[in-house]
Write a structure and sequence with these properties.
heterodimer, A: mainly alpha, 3 helices, B: alpha/beta, 5-stranded parallel sheet, 28 helices, 15 strands
């Protein structure tokens, strides 16, 4: 017994870790047309959000207001 | 700020229970507090509505595309907000007013209240599909209502309270709530704090005895405190995480088509009370097979529009699931209602095989099809399949040196190629063919009566939908009705077309594989070959297969296979085992329809993800997945009971037939099977 969407907001049986594995395999073995595939950067960001998202957002919710200075600096760096 | 922020619903409700003791009134914010959205951006719900309005306009010959509609809606809404701002502190807008103005502008003299109602109904239907009540809060509200607290819902929203009430009803809270208050009615919002005194006066509420719960620290927290009430704010990091994930999938899908299907599934995913622990088979149906069938039926609808098909016949038994999926998913995808009629048609290869011989006799290709299954060996098997009596052919067989038991299949002991040549010569014998036609006439007549009743001959173009694979059912079906002047043009739409035997295509009879078609190279989709039976069993209707059509005085009778024998009982056991899987498929249908309508994605957008699903689940499955979703029993009504030669079928064991230990511990097994499959597909 399990839920169709897990506690990391990932799909049961189609977890991101599995996608990363297939995407890695697809780099070396022809697997079919994935129209560009998932992209490494997208996988890193989504992996972070799925697996570490909750503690990160908990920190942001509780102490996010203290990061205003950092955000301003990051904003200036981005231009 | 005096109000308290809580970082989980559990802590909010625990504190709320303590605070609510001495309060008379508890009010809740609606959006992002009581109801959460599946999507990160609420404005996305407006897009399918814009598409709907553009479609309606197009049907009246008005040239509006959905982007123009959306731009006008935004402009009119903005103007309404600015006008409100001149008279009130809050810059609010009211949906019926601005959408009415938009529709009046687009449809001019043909605009009426009925049109406004249609558009409103669709927008509310889309909103309702995208909103999910937070179960813990719902349970708490039930507790509060039981102890006699007055419950209010307050929202700063362009929808008036009458519309919000429908959403609250959809969430199952209608009976518990005294009143739903929207800023669209009074233009007094929580944002300015004006809504609170207005409510206190209108409903006789004492601020000191009033607790407000919301998610916005400003309008639900600060403004409520200013009005003399106690406020509780919820800031759930889990919700932030969920929305952030959805937002990333949405943004990535713009530049990388691969993510479009994943985004669609993220919107389909069950939330809150929907996301109950269930059998793992349910998840396989919901997350894997459901979306595949969704893409399939969506493409069928598109094909029907292009080819002006007016009726879709879903063939038994897999068509049972396709038709149910269609009925649940497509109304939201096609709100204009230009869908063809649908019908579930009771057919089977066995039932149609005999009927197909009534006018053309037994063709060589059809006889070859009979010898495809390894259990079929001789003329008796041909007779079993085509509903013929072998004893009445003795005199026809003898001149060709054949008997009913002469081996005609090369994979069985005793095969002599000369016998097969003689059998082919027999097929050219007019007397033999006349006997075949005579014996199959009644079945064909009964079949035609049934098809007439089902309306097959009332349409010029019809779609014949089946799972696959060779198109044998449609082949027999068309051959059985081809002699009729009112025979429709049959567009066969198969889930997968493997085309093991070339299909006799003509202007009036074609087949197309939607998910996979051997006529176009598609490596990922070709992994359907790995587990074709899985799709058949997952979609199969819970009724026995059709054995034939029997002519009666009143018309016809459908003859179903008995369920009391061993095979019948095995099928019933399989039905029971796959029941959660089928439930998962059907439960995903409505969610698929809503998500696909919201995103506006079609087959081409979703195909890369579909390809991934097929490769991942069929070519690189987990050992447990194979043992879970591999069927327990599978009936092939064509298959005889004869044993082929001992060396038949020796060679590499297919991945889905491997033992659990091989699947679990052999690290290169999947790769070896995939390379073998790759070689086969390239050499096809």
């Amino acid at each position: 017994m399990s839920t169709s969407q897990n506690e990391r907001y990932d799909l049961r049986g189609l977890e991101l870790a599995r996608l990363i594995k297939i995407a890695f395999l697809g780099k070396y073995v022809p697997m079919g047309n994935f129209r560009g595939g998932p992209g490494a950067r997208c996988l890193v960001v989504l992996g972070t959000l799925h697996y570490l998202g909750y503690p990160l957002y908990l920190l942001l919710a509780r102490y996010g207001h203290r990061f205003q200075l950092l955000r301003r600096i990051a904003g200036k760096l981005r231009g | 700020m005096a109000f308290t922020t809580y970082y989980s619903l559990q802590s909010l409700i625990a504190a709320g229970r303590r605070k609510a003791g001495d309060k008379e009134v508890i009010s809740f914010d609606l959006f992002d507090t009581l109801l959460v959205r599946r999507i990160h951006d609420p404005d996305l719900v407006k897009l399918p509505v814009a598409r709907y309005i553009a479609d309606l306009a197009g049907r009246q010959g008005l040239s509006w595309n959905w982007r123009q509609v959306q731009r006008r809606r935004d402009a009119i809404e903005q103007r309404h907000r600015a006008e409100t701002g001149t008279k009130f502190v809050d810059h609010e807008a009211c949906y019926p007013r601005f959408i009415g103005e938009l529709l009046g502008e687009i449809f001019q003299s043909s605009f009426d209240e009925a049109l406004l109602d249609k558009v409103t109904d669709y927008e509310l239907a889309m909103e309702n599909r995208m909103l999910v009540p937070r179960q813990l809060l719902v349970d708490w509200i039930k507790e509060l209502a039981q102890v006699g607290k007055r419950i209010f819902i307050i929202s700063d929203m362009y929808m008036p309270a009458t519309h919000l009430r429908l959403m609250v009803r959809h969430a199952g809270l209608d009976e518990l709530v005294e009143e739903v208050v929207s800023s669209a009615d009074s233009f007094l919002a929580k944002a300015s704090g004006k809504a609170y005194p207005m409510m206190a006066e209108k409903y006789g509420l004492r601020p000191a005895a009033w607790l407000h719960v919301g998610d916005n620290p400003f309008s639900d927290g600060l403004r409520a405190e200013e009005a003399g009430m106690e406020a509780m704010i919820v800031h759930d990091p889990g919700e932030d995480q969920r929305k952030s994930i959805g937002k990333r999938y949405y943004n990535y899908s713009d530049g990388r088509p691969f993510w479009r299907g994943r985004l669609l599934q993220q919107l389909m995913a069950p939330l809150e009370a929907e996301n109950q622990p269930r059998s793992l088979l349910y998840s396989e149906g919901y997350n894997f097979l459901g979306p595949l069938i969704g893409v399939f039926v969506q493409q069928i609808a598109k094909f029907c529009r292009e080819k002006e098909i007016t009726k879709v016949f879903f063939l038994s038994r897999e068509g049972w699931t396709f038709k149910r999926y269609w009925e649940k998913a497509l109304p939201l995808l096609n709100p204009v209602g230009d869908l063809p009629d649908t019908e579930y048609l009771y057919v089977s290869r066995m039932a149609l095989a005999g009927a197909s011989c009534a006018y053309q006799g037994l063709t060589k290709t059809n006889a070859d099809i009979a010898f495809l299954p390894s259990g079929n060996r001789d003329f008796r098997d041909v007779c079993r399949i085509f509903g013929l009596d072998p004893d009445r052919f003795v005199s026809h067989l003898a001149p060709y040196g054949l008997k009913a038991d002469t081996c005609l299949s090369h994979i069985h002991e005793g095969y002599n190629p000369e016998n097969r040549q003689n059998f082919d010569a027999l097929l050219d014998d007019r007397a033999f063919q006349d006997e075949v036609k005579r014996q199959t006439q009644a079945a064909n007549e009964a079949m035609q009566r049934y098809f007439s009743q089902a309306g097959l001959f009332d349409h010029k173009n019809v779609a014949i939908v089946d799972i696959g694979w060779l198109g044998t059912i449609q082949r027999f079906l068309f051959e059985a009705i081809a002699h009729r002047a009112d025979c429709p043009t049959c567009f066969g739409l198969l889930f997968g077309a493997t085309r093991g035997i070339p299909y006799p295509e003509s202007d009036k009879n074609t087949i197309t594989g939607i998910m996979y078609d051997r006529n176009r190279f598609d490596l990922a989709a070709s992994t359907l070959y790995y587990a074709q039976d899985l799709f058949e069993e997952a979609c199969r209707a819970p009724h026995p297969t059709l054995n034939g059509y029997r002519l009666t005085e009143a018309g016809f009778e459908l003859e179903f296979r008995q369920t009391e024998d061993e095979i019948g009982r095995a099928e019933l056991a399989q039905d029971g085992y796959f029941a959660p899987l089928q439930q998962g498929i059907i439960d995903s249908a409505e969610k698929f329809g809503a998500a696909a309508a919201l995103l506006g994605y079609g087959f081409d957008d979703l195909k890369p993800w579909v390809n991934y699903l097929l490769v991942c689940k069929l070519a690189f499955p987990r050992a447990k997945e194979v043992s879970r979703i591999r069927h327990r029993h599978h009936l092939d009504d064509f298959h005889g009971s004869k044993k082929p030669k001992a060396d038949f079928g020796r060679g590499m064991v297919p991945l889905w037939s491997q033992s659990p230990s091989q699947l679990k511990f052999n690290p290169l097994l999947r790769m070896r099977c995939f390379f073998s499959h790759l070689r086969r597909i390239i050499n096809e």
